Structures are given as C-alpha cells and as structure tokens.
Amino acid sequence: MTLERKPHDLSPIAPVVRDGEAILHEARALMTRRVAEPSRRAFLTRTLSLGGVALLSGCSLDDNASVESALDKISRWNDRVQAALFRQGVLAPTFPASSITRPFPFNAFYSMDEAPVVEEADYQLELSGLIADKAPWRLDALRNFASPRAAEQITRHVCVEGWSAIGRWGGVTFSDFLRRIGADTTARYVGFKCADDYYTSIDMPTALHPQTLLALTYDGQTLPREYGFPMKLRIPTKLGYKNPKHIRAIFVTNTYPGGYWEDQGYNWFGGS
Questions:
Q1: CA 105, CA 111: separation in Å to the nearest integer?
Q2: Could you tell me if 183 and 157 are in contact, meaning their C-beta atoms sit under 8 angstroms apart?
Q3: How many whole angstroms from its chain centre is CA 175?
Q4: 46-77: per-residue pLDDT in tens?
Q5: Which residue from 198, 194, 202, 232 is spatially nearest to 216, judged by alpha carbons?
Q6: pLDDT digits (tens, 9 = 90+) for 3-59
Q7: Can you tell me the distance from the alpha carbon of 16 to that of 18, in angstroms, rounded to the nearest whole number?
Q8: Are the CB atoms for 194 and 248 separated by under 8 Å?
Q9: 247-253 and 189-194 strand pairing
Q10: Residue 7 phi/psi, 5° resolution?
Q11: What is the pTM of this model?
C-alpha cells in the first residue's frame, strides 16, 4: 500500500454530513471491495438501498453517528461473510517466473528511504500469547528451520488501492512454524507487530492455509529491506495490507487484536 500514515490531530473537526447518495456510495464501495465473485458483487451493489443499509446494520440513519455505526456494521458483516466463505483447500492462482512484475513495486505508508533498518545481529523474533514455546528466534535459527521445509510461491499481490503485481516469495509455510512453536491452532487470531510500528492480525484458518508463507527471501535472494527484511508474512488470499513486513513479534490470542488500518475503518478480514 502507498497510503500515508494518518497524523494524530486533536483539533476540533467539523462533522461530515452525508446525504443518502453518499451513504449508498460508501456502502456499495465496501461491498465491491469485499465480495470477490463478480455476479454476486454486481447484484449486491445494484440492489443495495438506504433501507438495505439500515436493515443490514440494524441502525437508523438519522445522524452522522448512526451512519458511521451503520457503515461499520456492514463492514463487520462483510468480515463474517468472507470468513464463512473462506476455504483452506481453495488456493490463490500461481504464475510462471515470466509473469513476475519487475521491478516489484515498493508499497508502504512511508517512502522507501524511511523503511526500517533491522540489524540481523540484534534481531530476535518475540513470541507471546497462546504459544507453548515462547523462546525468541534469531534469524539464523529461522533460516535453519526453513531450509529443509523450503516453500516458494509466485503469486499476485493485490493492493486495496486497486493495483496488483506478481512476485516470488520463499520461506516456510506458516502452519509449519506455528506447529513447531506449539501455537494453539484452535485459537481465533494470530497477531503481528512490526519494526515500522505497523501491526495487524489474521484469523487462524488463514494462518493455517497452505499458501500462507513466512517469507525470508524474495526472488531467490535474502528478503531486501524494501520488501520487509528480515521477514514478512505472505498471504496471497488476502489484500496487501494484511501482509505484514519487518515482523518482530507474533502472538496468538482469542481476543480481537485489530490492526493499523483496520482500526481506522478498513475491513478486518481483508480477503482478496
């Protein structure tokens, strides 16, 4: 993503007044981004009305607070629908090496020059929450663990802003790592904290998906700084903002953890 970090502003902000068309436009946009199958998406966006917004959300639309509540409830409803439709056996498309986008675009809420510098000698992956073995992992130990279980994929990264690119990531299947550390795979969420102050979380079924990858390399080389060194989570079944980079901590929990963009209104499930 190339979205900018939102500054904290404590000055009074005039309320935004939405008319009926504006409410419908935002609700339809939410559905368009979240419903992948074209015919269902077209049906929902064409037939959604103000009454439908109120019905889906259980909110009246009398003031801005109720409109925000309605749109938030539709967003949460979309999360539940996507989670119900998600299947671990359904794989994202893969591509030949000739399809790789070169150069693969840099995407973050900061410029490339501002990407965090993580020193390999000092790096330790912290583990917490519902995990049996919480011992930290150094990068060489992660590489040694990944080496006999090496996994690689050439998949499409889809950004919420509307662009996509195909890249080649290598590492170890995340489910292998979760089982190695004794993570409670019956828990609801896996959360991530990153060296660039980003944070996000995913559902456990996605964490265990066979294509969800703890990525240590890009295009056959050590993962470069601009793509998330020392590691990122590559999830081809989700939008780009659900693929954390520069990961420094992983935790497993049953308490909803939110996320950097999700806490600012983005859908939490974030399926592509």
A1: 12
A2: no
A3: 17
A4: 444 444 444 444 544 444 554 455 455 555 65
A5: 232
A6: 444 433 433 334 443 455 554 455 555 545 444 444 444 434 444 444 444 444 454
A7: 6
A8: yes
A9: antiparallel
A10: -70, 155
A11: 0.73
The total number of residues written for the chain in this structure: 272
CATH number of 97-264: 3.90.420.10
67: left (phi over 0), alpha (psi -120 to 50) or beta: alpha
Q: Which amino acid is it at 227?
A: Y
Q: Report the C-alpha dihedral over residues 188, 194, 200, 201, rounded to 10 degrees.
A: -10
**266 touches 259 (CB < 8 A):** yes
Cβ-Cβ contacts under 8 Å for 110 (sequence gap 6 or more):
4, 5, 196
**Residue 219 predicted with pLDDT over 50:** yes
Q: What is the mean pLDDT of the chain?
A: 80
Distance of alpha carbon 118 from the chain centroid: 22
